[in-house]
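So, can you check?
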Amino acid sequence: MTIDWKKMLPHLVAVCVFIGIAMAYFYPAMQGNMLKSHDIKMHKGMAKETVDHRADFGEEPLWTNSAFGGMPATQITVVYNSNLIGKLHKVFMLGLPHPINYLFLYMIGFYIFLLCMKVDPWLALAGAIAYGLSSYFFIIMGAGHNSKAVAIAYMAPALGGFLLAYRNKVLLGTAVMTLFMSLQINANHPQVTYYFFIMLFFIFVYYVIKYIKDKSLPSLAKRTGLIALGTLLAISTNIPNLYGTAEYSPHTQRGGSELTPVKQLSQYANEIDTSVLNKLKLSGCDMPKCILEMPIAGNSSKDRLRFCNY
């Protein structure tokens, strides 16, 4: 098997250009400087007990007392040594320092997406650069939303594979989708993954209607079956983290519904918490003024009291 270097040239150039742009934009990182992010600082504090236990005993504690008086460490820091997808993620980042690696992921991910859409490689190169330099990406990197950044970066090529499977090359498209969907779920940002699957659902509905109108039900069944298999495979590669999260999530504040059944509304009508009203009264707040100004005074009772008492 011989490699057609003429066809490979645009892709090699694209990779080099993406690395060059990322290094130039975040040049201080090449000098050993680090991006200081609030959320990352908070994460290091929450993870320290678990990290220390791992270093001292060589095992995963799966529990930490550093957050909320004690909780599972599943969504804080757990190392799954058997998870090859996590190791593959490191390969895609090419050993580049943070945040150069994330900017590279943005561009190479969208480049793959455009290739799946049959865009000319040289035009895809320009499109990937424009996508990678989107302002929102730098905002979330600065805030330390690393898992969101990675999840978004892998969402584009996963979507490209999904579209490619329904458009023409079903096997190649399914393989691309499965690979990058595994990486996307492994990024561990359920919110982005949730939105991603909603988007895939509506695209799926479009193709169902299209194939039915074209009277190509066997092709639809084949492509849908392979994509469903690939999706299950992508999910299965992340089962340890997903199962651990699902196991304890019913016991969290987000585990139950915040909606109140209509039948119970009447019993709550006479159980108004008067503590805030008493505080407002003691603070000398003019009630009509407070009611009008509360929406812009802040979210907490403390903010509202401070706003009123002037």
Observations:
- The beta strands are 63-64, 71-72.
